[in-house]
Design brief:
This protein has a five-stranded antiparallel beta sheet. The chain has 13 helices and eleven strands. The protein is an alpha+beta fold. A hairpin with a 4-residue loop joins strand 7 and strand 8. Helix 3 runs antiparallel to helix 4 and helix 12 packs across helix 13. It folds into four domains: 117 residues, no CATH class; 50 residues, Roll (SH3 type barrels); 82 residues, 2-Layer Sandwich (GMP Synthetase, Chain A, domain 3); 62 residues, no CATH class.
């Protein structure tokens, strides 16, 4: 099947070369038909056109031969993966430039140096206006020869874009994410920034999970519980990358633990992380260990006594005591004692949230809501 596909790709350039040779044989008769008084083509001009067409058709056939038997033959076997398209484009460009450099002086007797000198100014202006495009092209060439990744590798760019390399063109690199979406990145950004390759030096690599456990859990017990969860995931336990745990630090909430484990490849890491998470939660449940909760310290300071306004001010804000005089409020404040009461959750009858209350002492204690 592969041989048939290669032969099919050679049919078009072979047919074009045969047509160019046939045209050279009958060029005298064909071009005589199109000759007019304004455009007279002599015998030498007809030969030049026919020879130039043969050169172009031959170059096209050589490009296809190199692409099929060298790039997708020898080079692909050596690399172990299909070569990037940009490499085929570079080879084709080099062959076309070499063909023109040989055909112009041989067929038309023109010097290529004069042609380059005449177009130098135009190339300079074009280079300034297309500097970003030219930078992308040069970086694409660098990516081909430096090979920081191969087609099919999973990579992450400097700005956190992760995906599998699908194609490297003249200007862009195409990634396909784990969500099956396409990301197109300029080659100047790929080659100029930091790039993480998850397939090198090995396809498998380490991932980690973090847990905070209470101080009451000993280090030996925590390590045993975390490492035993890896044994329940054979895809990770069977890898040469052996799991290990480390203490990230201590906090007010507890001990921060990190579990490092291997994943066979980038695509399967998400399912493996989920299964390890489930195994750890199950182990902690059966061991009667809760994950440490964030703590909050609340400090309450009681106002200093002796100030009349502070002692009786809250009484003035209660409608029940509006008719009392200052002396009566002072006496009532002296007989009262302060209590803080908090009802957690909402009141079932009213639906109101819990609140603080300050209650006085005596036969009938009345409470003043502070919430």
């Amino acid at each position: 099947m592969a041989l048939q596909m290669r032969i099919r790709r050679l049919i078009l350039p072979a047919v074009l070369l045969l047509l160019a040779v046939a045209f050279a044989l009958i060029a005298h008769d064909v071009l005589s038909i199109f000759s007019t008084e304004e455009m007279m083509l002599d015998h030498e001009d007809r030969e030049h056109i026919a020879e130039f067409l043969i050169w172009l058709a031959s170059a096209f056939l050589v490009i296809r031969l190199v692409d099929i038997f060298i790039l997708h033959g020898i080079v692909e076997q050596a690399m172990g993966s299909p070569p990037p398209r940009i490499l085929s484009g570079l080879v084709a460009l080099a062959i076309w430039i070499l063909t023109l450099a040989l055909a112009l002086p041989i067929v038309f007797g023109q010097s290529t140096a004069g042609l380059l000198a005449a177009s130098s100014v135009g190339l300079g202006v074009l280079g300034i206006s297309l500097s970003r495009v030219i930078a992308d092209v040069f970086y694409s060439v660098a990516l081909v020869f430096e090979r920081p990744f191969d087609i099919g590798d999973w990579v992450m760019t400097a700005d956190g874009q992760e995906g599998q390399v699908k194609e490297v063109s003249w200007r862009t690199t195409t990634l396909v994410t784990i969500n099956d979406t396409t990301i197109v990145i300029p080659n100047s950004k790929v080659g100029g920034d930091t790039l993480t390759n998850f397939n090198r030096p090995h396809v498998s690599f380490y991932r980690s999970l973090s847990f905070t456990l209470p101080f009451s859990v000993t280090a030996y017990r925590a390590e045993r519980l975390l490492l035993s969860s890896i044994e329940e995931v054979p895809e990770s336990a069977s890898l040469p990358l052996k799991p290990f745990v480390s203490i990230k630090g201590l906090s007010n909430d507890g001990v921060e633990w990190a579990l490092f484990f291997g994943v066979p490849d980038y695509a399967t890491q998400w399912s493996i992380k989920t299964r390890i998470h489930r195994a750890i939660l199950r182990n902690l449940f059966y061991a009667d260990i809760d994950i440490a909760q964030r703590r909050m310290n609340v400090t309450m300071q009681r106002p200093q006594s002796g100030n009349l306004d502070e002692e009786t001010g809250w009484l003035r804000r209660v409608a029940l005591f509006e008719g009392l005089s200052d002396n009566e409020r002072t006496w009532l404040a002296g007989q009262a004692r302060e209590q803080l009461r908090f009802s957690g959750g909402a009141d079932r009858a009213t639906g109101r949230a819990g609140k603080f209350a300050v209650c006085g002492q005596g036969g009938r204690a009345r409470c003043h809501d502070q919430g």
